[in-house]
Amino acid sequence: MMMVKIQKALKKPILSSLGISRTSKTPLSMFLAYKKIKAANLPLVPEVPLPEELFQIPGRKIVGLIIDPFKLNNIREERLRTYGDYMRTLTMRMSVVLKKS
């Protein structure tokens, strides 16, 4: 199902952004959409091969997004901390609800 969505998405855009998580692919796509430019957002995941359709797109229509590894690590650590705080709060709330019932 996911591959079908990717195949359809790659046939329409004027620009395709490619990068790992936290490289601002989505904000870039949203900005381009605001400017009425169709864009595809393709994540790079180590275990997942690139779709064959990507190689049919002219190179001038593909933008590779990069990020400094140290900055990426800081962002991911902060997200984990935030997620951990959220999970602790959720767990505490659930235990209160369960005690009341």
What does this structure look like?
- The chain has 101 residues and is α/β, with parallel strands linked by helices.
- The protein is 51% helix and 13% strand.
- It contains three helices and three strands.
- A three-stranded parallel sheet has the order 2-1-3, with helices on both faces.
- The radius of gyration is 19 Å and the shape is elongated.
- It starts with a helix and ends with a helix.
**Fraction of residues in β-strands:** 5-15%
Sheet with the most strands: spatial strand order:
2-1-3
Helix vs. strand class:
alpha/beta
**How would you spell out the order of helices and strands?**
HEHEEH
Topology:
Blueprint: H1 2-11, E1 15-19, H2 25-34, E2 39-43, E3 62-64, H3 69-100
Parallel strand pairs: 1-2, 1-3
Concise account of the structure shown:
The protein is an alpha/beta fold. Helix content is 51%, strand content 13%. It is built from three helices and three strands, in the order H-E-H-E-E-H.
Keywords:
101 residues; three-stranded parallel sheet; alpha/beta; elongated; single chain
